[in-house]
Structure formats: C-alpha cells, structure tokens
Amino acid sequence: MFANHADPVGVGHVASLARPGGNITGLSMLLTEIVAKQLEIMKQALPHMKRIGVLVVSTAPSTRPALQAVEAAARRLGVQVLTVPVQTPEDLDGAFAMVVRERLNGFLAVPSPLLRSQRAVAAELALRPRLAGMFRPKDNVEAGGLMSYFSDPDDMTRRAATYIDKILKGAKPADLPVEQPTKFELVINLKTAKALGLTIPQSLLLRADGD
Length: 211
Prior knowledge:
The protein has 9 helices and 8 strands. By secondary structure, the protein is an alpha/beta fold.
C-alpha cells in the first residue's frame, strides 16, 4: 500500500484510480493536477510572469507526467516553461544560476526528497537573486521559500491509516480505489515576499493557511 504516491496511473503502478486492478492501492497526491494548480497560483501572484523555470529531479519516475501537466497549464496561461534539471545537491547552484541567466520570472520546484532535504539551501539560492518560487511542502516556505501549495500531509496520513486497517481486516487492494486528497494547503511567506519586493494579491492571502 502507498500512502502518498505522486502519480500511480502515470507511472503505471495501477490501471486506474477507481479500479487499481492489482495488489497495490492507497492514496495519491495527484501530482499532475497539483503542479498545474501551482503554476496557476504563481501566475496569480506574478501576473506579468511570462517565463518560468521548472526544477525537476530528472531521474524520478513521476517527472515526465508532471512536466507534461505543467507545460499544458503553461500553454493555457501564456507562460513559457524552461526545464531545469537537478540530480544532486551540488547541482542546485548551477540550476539557480540557469534561472537567473535565462532571465526567468520565477521557478516551480516539482516535489522531490532532494529539494525538500535541501530546503534551506534552495531558499538562500532563490533569495539572493530575488527569485519567486513555488514549492510542495510548507517546510520549504518555513525555510524561506516564497510559497507552497499541496495536499494536507496530516490528512493524508490519517486516511492512510484507515486503508491499512481495511487491508488488515481482509479487504483486497484491487477492490479498494486509490483515494485522492480532499484538503489542500496554500502557505505564503510574507517576509520573503517583502524581501522579493512582491505584493501578494488579497485573493491569495485570503486562501492562505499561514505564513
């Protein structure tokens, strides 16, 4: 059972969300839908945004469907996307230098353990050249990143425990549909926004869970 899968259909682990069809099921974070929504929020925060970098760990299985979702959303929003690959912590300096060199308006960091573990470094590298960034977990925002939008991790954990209970009581994974997140968090670091010289629209501030 998985508790927070990025994209179980996109990477081929289940046949569909409604009918997994195998011996595995659980909860999906719906990464492809989330990254598209993240880009929409970035466009609201930066209405003049025309070009954005997408930081991705190129070896992650969910990278391709996530990039496709971002690119589709970008076409709707009239935004140009530039892929910025990273694989190790040592790649971060070059990745952010690329964002600056290409004169991008900001960046969206596709969720990965690497970017989460290096959240303080990522925040510092973004603040230095005054780059606006969107991350997955609020940990990155607490470390100094500008904003985060994602499914509520505490809610996902509680629901995963319920699934484990069902399986232990004899339910077959193939009969349990993959559940999707129902609660989401938008977190904005107002101190970082001020340092970047940004005025966050009131419409986003009203939706935010904290800063």
